[in-house]
Design brief:
By secondary structure, the chain is mainly α. It contains five helices and no strands. Helix 1 runs antiparallel to helix 2, helix 2 packs antiparallel against helix 3 and helix 4 runs antiparallel to helix 5. The longest helix has about 30 residues.
Length: about 150
């Protein structure tokens, strides 16, 4: 339940910031890190409980840490904000995690959970490659003048 509430408040926070023009460079960096902490903790817990294969958690976390590191490598040249694909990735991860967290009486068949998580993993990897390409382009661009 805590995961669902935390995910919902994150969604609301993002919507409010965008709808009121309160998007900041700090938020562009801090929000994805908060998303990663939330989903990462849930994935680690699911794997520790034997509900989710460790390779899934490892693959997702490696991508997440890699993208975060890339953001900091290129930060002097600009901020890599979350892309629509990145937002879809987070949504799919949250949906898949929620399916795994449902009580047994409400839980869908295992194949439904597995397909949802597989979709999340695929989008996670594809968007990871997109972030690498965006970081390379940004890194190769001229640095903005120092202020």
């Amino acid at each position: 339940m805590i995961f669902v509430v935390a995910s919902a408040t994150d969604l609301l926070d993002g919507w409010l910031a965008r709808s009121r023009g309160l998007v900041t460079d700090f938020g562009k960096i801090a929000d994805p890190i908060a998303d990663k902490a939330l989903t990462g903790a849930a994935l680690i817990t699911l794997s520790a409980l034997g509900e989710l294969a460790w390779w899934v958690t490892t693959l997702i976390l490696l991508r997440e840490f890699g993208v975060t590191a890339l953001r900091f490598v290129v930060i002097r040249r600009g901020v890599i904000a979350a892309s629509p694909g990145g937002k879809l990735k987070t949504l799919l991860q949250v949906i898949a995690i929620c399916l795994y967290l449902l009580p047994a009486s409400l839980s869908p068949p295992a194949i439904v959970k597995q397909v949802a998580m597989a979709a999340a993993v695929v989008v996670t990897l594809v968007t990871g490659a997109d972030y690498v390409a965006r970081a390379v382009r940004l890194y190769r661009s001229p640095a903005p003048p120092a202020s």
